[in-house]
Amino acid sequence: MIEIEALTKDYLELTVVDHVGLTVADGEIAVIVGTSGSGKTTLLRMINRLIEPTSGTVKIDGQDTRDVPAFELRRRIGYAIQGHGLFPHRTVGQNIATVPTLLGWDKGKIAARVDELLELFQLPAAEFRDRMPSELSGGQQQRVGVARALAAEPKLLLMDEPFGALDPIIRAKAQSDLLAIQKRFGTTIVLVTHDMEEAIHLGSRIAVMDKGKLLQYAPPDEIIARPATPFVAELIGTGERPFRLLSLGKVRDLVESGPAQGEPISADASLRDAYAECLWTGREMLPVVDADGASIGRIRRDDIAHKAERPQ
Amino acid sequence: MTDAAIAAPTRSFAVDKLGVLIAALAAIAAFLPFAAFRANRIVLGEAKGLFAALPGWEAAALAIVLAAGIGIALFRTPTLWRLATSLVVLALLFVAIGHAGTFLTPPGDKIARVSPGAGFWLLIFAFALLAADAIARLKLKPWTRIGVLAAVALFFAVLLGSGTLNDLSILREYANRGDTFWREAQTHLALALGSLAAATVAGIPIGILCHRSDAWRAPVLNVLNAIQTIPSIALFGLLIAPLAWVAANIPGASAVGISGIGAAPAMVALFAYSLLPVVANTVVGLDGVPPAANDAAKGMGMTDWQRLVTVEFPLAFPVILTGIRIVLVQNIGLATIAALIGGGGFGVFVFQGVGQTAMDLVLLGAVPTVALAFAAAVVLDAIVEMVSPKDTRRD
Ligand SMILES: Nc1ncnc2c1ncn2[C@@H]1O[C@H](COP(=O)(O)OP(=O)(O)O)[C@@H](O)[C@H]1O
Ligand SMILES: [Mg+2]
Predict the structure, then answer these.
(1) CB contact under 8 A, A50 and B295
(2) Are residues B50 and B188 in the same domain?
(3) Do B227 and B358 reside in the same domain of the chain?
(4) Which DSSP category does B390 fall into?
(5) Does a structural domain hold residue B326?
(6) Most buried of the four, A42, A164, A236, B16, by CB within 10 Å?
(7) Ligand 1 close to Cβ of residue A42 (< 6 A)
């Protein structure tokens, strides 16, 4: 668990992060979102003390981060940055091995961990282990960057716009990979982005920042339904609100028994996709199948539309 | 494929731009003396053209080879041919000048001098140009370049060992002072390499300090820059007084070899000149380390020292090595001046030769210096290329 209290950073007269307080429970993904210059990166980097706070405290599992030497603290926390930050003179394998090496793991254990992570990120170890970062595509570099951050099995992972440099298709893939890995290891993640869509997709909670202040910290549905300030509402985009709400729900939540005509939809698809399918094919209802293709009922367009209404 | 097939016939008759220059130089060389003969070391020489300097058939053969070489240079021929041609012509020229020495020297005459003439040097220059151009166009791998250098060195070793060049004046000078030559060669290398080692050991930490602290950066670089602008002879001279004072007043100083003249001030001067390239390249190299790599290193919990050793230094190394290359080549040349203040080295022959107006003696000092500097440049350029990251980005 991370507890941040009254965390503040001043540069001379300028207050860049202003009395921010928030708590991230174990296994949650907290997404910090805001416009450029709102203090997101500064807030994130104060967690692993890459930036020393002017005042306020950060506690990780109850321990004040100032009670441990900074380099030791950072070895326990995964850190992935935009543009991956891979060491250009080291192979993919050596890059991933960075923190385990710093921690003095033995060679066999490090090699096994490197291969395990490469496979996990769908980069066949035999092929990729000895490549140089410059020999990878942008998407592959980004995956190696995240693999490196996870190498020493940190309980906490900090990510600063990790997908910012990727094109939309690779980006969507990277996001779903991250969710899968987070589920598997139960890692607590604090992720910075300027993209509200990404925040809603990934976040169990979203922290909206503006000019160094935390405007709202809440689960995505609450942020959409009850934005705390006009700025938050604007960031979500008023016209987008019903669709953003739908993107949070799954087809599975609204399945009823009964038949329907035409191409079926997966129970794990988002309500937003189901609604789009109804509109596009002019159908009142869609047949629903589960992951192995077995029919489990149907979903009605009206039910979906109802879900898009402002929650009470 | 088809483009090349169509273009080939026209291209084979096309004239190469550099070839025109080489042909022009060779044409001028034909009107200049191939060798010069002097009855003794310091009288004025008589110019000898190619056919006067060599036995008739040998001169004719060389003339034909030269003509063929010029033809190959003049037209657009395959690069490998051009390289082979230039190397063969250069080798034959050196053999021929050796034969000219033997041919022109009356049997048993120990004081007559034969030296290469302006025509010879111009031909060497023209075909060296062709070789350099071909090597550049072939984009040879670093190891191959070192291999070519080694082959050239081996060629000269065999040529000198075989005695083919023994009747040339420069080797006559060498024969008179064989022991001194190798002693001065050692001194020369010790001066150049010793000052380089000292500058590297001192310069890299100073560079790191300048990189990390803005307060040091400007003052240190300005002082080193100012030192570079002092003319070398002045700097060597300026050091005489303070070092003489040190030798006279600090106990033990003269016992370890410090004195106003000799190797000590030469070493200090070379060291002072060497610092700027090493320090400046260290700073530039460290500045060029990608900020994201530094940020990641800190973020993953490297200490400052670990980051310096495992990330910053390896990434800056090719640039630092470029600085070391500059210093080595510069010092091999500058060490010649050490002889002026009694520091020894190849400069001894140069200054003695100037004093006696004996050009051959000047060459005995100058030729090895130039050859050493050239070899150092080739080897270090190759090493720099080997340690530099290759650009193999795929996306
Ligand atoms: N070292 C610094 N000195 C002065 N101002 C800074 C420094 N670092 C960041 N800032 C300022 O702090 C503000 C917030 O920066 P940052 O946290 O990087 O924002 P974000 O990540 O949200 O784009 C910006 O206005 C930036 O100019
Ligand atoms: Mg930022």
Answers:
(1) yes
(2) no
(3) yes
(4) P
(5) yes
(6) A236
(7) yes
Query: Are B93 and B221 within one domain?
Result: no
pLDDT bracket for residue A158 (50, 70, 90) = very high
Return the residue of A nearest to B302 by Cα: A71
pLDDT tens digit string along B260-311?
A: 777 888 888 899 999 999 999 999 999 999 999 999 999 999 999 999 999 9
Categorize the per-residue pLDDT at B12 as very low, low, confident or very high, splitting at 50, 70 and 90: low
B200/B323 Cα distance (integer angstroms):
9
The pLDDT assigned to B261 comes to 77
**pLDDT tens track for A88-125:** 999 999 999 999 999 999 999 999 999 999 999 999 99
Q: Could you tell me if A104 lies within 8 Å of chain B, comparing CB atoms?
A: no
Structural domain contains residue B334: yes
In angstroms, what separates the C-alpha of B196 from chain A's closest C-alpha?
27
Closest CA to ligand 1's atom 27: A37
Domain boundary, last residue among B78, B112, B139: B139
CB contact under 8 A, B393 and A72: no
Quote the DSSP letter at residue B310.
I
Interface test mutation site (partner B, options A102, A103, A169, max chain B beta carbons within 10 A): A102
Protein residue with its CA nearest to atom 16 in ligand 1: A39
Q: How would residue B245 be classed by pLDDT, with cut points 50, 70 and 90?
A: confident
Minimum-distance ligand to the CA of A43? 1
Contact criterion met (CB < 8 Å) for B299 and A132: no
The Cβ of residue B147 has, within 10 Å, a number of other Cβ atoms equal to: 13
Give the CB-side neighbour count of residue B117, counting CA atoms within 13 A.
Answer: 24
> Could you give the CA distance from residue B392 to residue B286 in angstroms, rounded to a whole number?
22
The tokens for B376 are: 């150092």
ipTM of the complex: 0.86
Indicate left, alpha or beta for A39 from its phi (over 0: left) and psi (-120 to 50: alpha).
left
pLDDT of residue B177: 87
Residues B117 and B224 in one domain: no
Which residues have a Cβ under 8 Å from the Cβ of A192 and sit 6 or more positions away? A31, A32, A33, A40, A41, A43, A44, A159, A160, A161
Q: Tell me the per-residue pLDDT of B30-72, one tens digit each, with 9 for 90 and over.
A: 889 999 998 887 778 888 998 999 998 999 999 999 999 999 9
Kindly give the residue spans of alpha helices, DSSP state H, lying in chain B: 2-12, 17-30, 50-53, 56-74, 79-104, 118-138, 142-161, 169-176, 178-212, 214-229, 232-238, 240-249, 263-287, 291-299, 304-307, 313-334, 347-355, 359-387
Task: Looking at the complex, report in whole angstroms how far the Cα of residue B321 sits from the nearest Cα belonging to chain A.
Answer: 16
pTM of whole model > 0.90?
no
B266 is a domain residue = yes
Domain boundary among B112, B139, B166: B139
Domain count, chain B: 2
Same domain, B221 and B370: yes
Q: B134 and B213 in one domain?
A: no
Q: Is A195 helix (H, G, I), strand (E, B) or coil?
A: coil
- Does residue B144 sit within a domain? no
Atom in ligand 1 nearest the alpha carbon of residue A14: 5
Q: What is the pLDDT of residues A264-307, one digit of tens each?
A: 999 989 999 999 999 999 999 999 999 888 999 999 999 999 98
CATH of residue B196: 1.10.3720.10
- A74 part of contact set with chain B, CB < 8 Å: yes
Cβ–Cβ under 8 Å, residues A154 and A182:
no
Same domain for B131 and B278, yes or no, is no
Domain that holds residue B309: 178-392
Same domain for B201 and B113:
no
Contact B389 A132 (CB under 8 A): yes
